[in-house]
Design a protein that fits this description.
The protein has about 260 residues and is an alpha/beta fold. It folds into two domains: about 120 residues, 3-Layer(aba) Sandwich (Rossmann fold); about 120 residues, 3-Layer(aba) Sandwich (Rossmann fold). Helices cover about 50% and strands about 15% of the residues. It has 13 helices and eight strands. Helix 12 links the parallel strand 7 and strand 8. Helix 7 crosses helix 9. The protein is globular, with a radius of gyration of 18 Å. It starts with 12 loop residues before the first strand and ends in a 16-residue tail after the last helix.
């Protein structure tokens, strides 16, 4: 870390919400998140009681199961000073929607509000909460960055990733056109409306290609898997990585896609 603009050293306790996709498809993102959070001066733990954030059930209208998942998640993370997720989508669910689920519950309502106040998306946490402005990382090549819908619109994650990418040695950021436009994934949206989803991601991959970058970055694995799946089907050799892997200098893993994890 650049100590002139480096992290605070008060050593708070952080509970890492790993997310389902990271756990199942890209554990390296979780390890990269742990490295970055620890470098910012925090202690990191991964509660065993965590499961899904409940977003698939919530988006499908299954409020009963969503509440059961939310209750278990809140109980698992209540002891921590912060709850951090390497996903704007999951962090948005935890922070913005959990309080509404228990708005009429005199016991869980206040607990959900207190929980939500401690939730942060990973890159926003590093920059906004921990004061990190620079990281010791190197990546040789041109990248482009996709702003995920939930991270951008629910949590205000926009400049934070660009601040940290600017300090990565050897990295050149080539912004794509319409970086803020949806990639077409939307979780269950891509299942319910596959034709619309495919049309949206087709426009996105055209912009990715036009940027001239050899690597696509984002803060949400779902978006990355959707976009790299389309790039693979189009025969385009543009790799994809979660931004945490670049910032942590953990790029030994093969890029996302190309091995059956993004079809």
């Amino acid at each position: 870390m650049d100590q002139t603009t480096g992290p605070r050293s008060d050593n708070p306790r952080v509970g890492l919400f790993v997310t389902c996709l990271v756990d199942l498809f890209r554990p390296s993102v979780g390890f990269a998140a742990i490295k970055l959070i620890e470098q910012s001066g925090c202690r990191v733990e991964v509660p065993r009681g965590q499961t899904c954030c409940g977003q698939p059930a919530y988006n499908s209208g299954d409020k009963a199961d969503t509440r059961a998942i939310a209750r278990a998640t809140i109980e698992a993370f209540e002891p921590y000073d912060y709850i951090v997720a390497p996903s704007g989508s999951c962090a948005g669910m935890l922070k913005m929607h959990y309080p509404d689920l228990f708005g009429d519950d005199p016991d869980m309502g206040p607990r959900a509000e207190a929980f939500a106040d401690k939730v942060h998306e990973l890159i926003s946490f590093l920059v906004d909460e921990r004061g990190v402005k620079n990281v010791e990382a190197r990546y040789e090549g041109k990248v482009t960055y996709h702003d995920s819908c939930a991270g951008l619109r629910e949590l205000g994650v926009k400049q934070q990733p660009r601040i940290l990418l600017e300090g990565v040695q050897g990295l050149e950021l080539d912004e794509m056109e319409d970086s803020e436009i949806c990639c077409g994934f939307g979780g269950t949206f891509s299942i319910k409306y596959p034709d619309i989803s495919n049309a949206i991601v087709g426009k996105k991959t055209a912009n990715i290609s036009a940027s001239g970058a050899g690597c696509l970055l984002a803060g949400d694995l779902g978006c990355l898997m959707n976009m790299t799946g389309k790039l693979t089907r189009e025969g385009k050799s543009i790799e994809a990585r979660h931004i945490a892997e670049i910032l942590a200098g953990m790029t030994d893993e093969p890029p996302i896609g190309g091995s059956g994890d993004a079809q």
